[in-house]
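Dear Dr. H.,

I hope your travels went smoothly. While you were away I took the liberty of generating a structure for the chain from your last submission, since the lab meeting agenda had it listed for discussion. I wanted you to have the full record in hand beforehand rather than looking at slides cold. The sequence, exactly as received, is reproduced here:
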Amino acid sequence: MIGVDAGGTSTRALAVARDGTVVGRGSSGGANPNSHPPEEAVAHIEEAIRAALGDRDPHDVDGCTVGMAGTSKLSDPAVAALFDAAWKRLGLDRVLVLSDAEVAFASATASPDGTVLVAGTGSIAGRIRDHRVVATMGGYGWLLGDEGSAFWLGREAVRWTLDELSAGTTLGALSRSVLHEAGLDDTERSEVWRRLITVANGEPPIRLARFAPLVSAAPDAGPIIERAAELLVETAMAVREPAENTPIVLVGSVLAGPVGTLVRKRLSDLPVHTSSDGVLGAAWLAALAAYGVNANRPKQGI
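The corresponding predicted structure, in token form, is as follows:
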């Protein structure tokens, strides 16, 4: 089996034996075709799979599941053709492309039903039925949504800094750290806000996510953290059926920090699990497709 977790910042692949033992690993850069050029996304997924396969014959692979952020992009026939060409180059006959939300849910629980909340570079919640997403909320990408995500946190951090600069108030810890990350200082207050705008607009929009860790570390960023948690819980509950008692799976870098702490507090009356490694869920779903309900869940090997 091959399992792949292709996110906005990195791609990881596992080769897994039928008994569930991990026998190969590979990694590469981000592969969300909505936030990366599709050709680049394809190249990163292909690189990760080749590394995981090593010297193994791809024709011996019983199945491959790719969990990918930005699967909506495959609705473009030209983009879908790029991915199909990659599967042919790799020699893989059975490739199932699922959302990153589906593989994340499968990595944390064997339950076929529940809710998954993903908050990494982007954000999305999904209602899971029989291991597949049947309804979603969010996941619209940086331009149209991704509330509470690392992109959202980074954007809010820059806006917070611009507001303090524009108001001429004393800069707090978050604003100082944002300026440092942007390679700026506040010695010329009349100009630095313009320079920060220029820096933020001079890079791909998704790069705003690099400011997200600064929010988690800043003692004065509480309002941003509170709002992020509120938005993420709203997103999850909007897709969850009333009175449902199935698991909620949390996944993503944002939910591993102070935002996640608040989200868990708000969901404390529900069964909440944490996905530590979505690629394991991808490998298990590949095994389920090939071997049925008795397929072994992946276990750590090499």
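Two observations you may find useful: The longest helix spans residues 150-167. The two ends are 15 Å apart (CA to CA).

With kind regards,
E. W.
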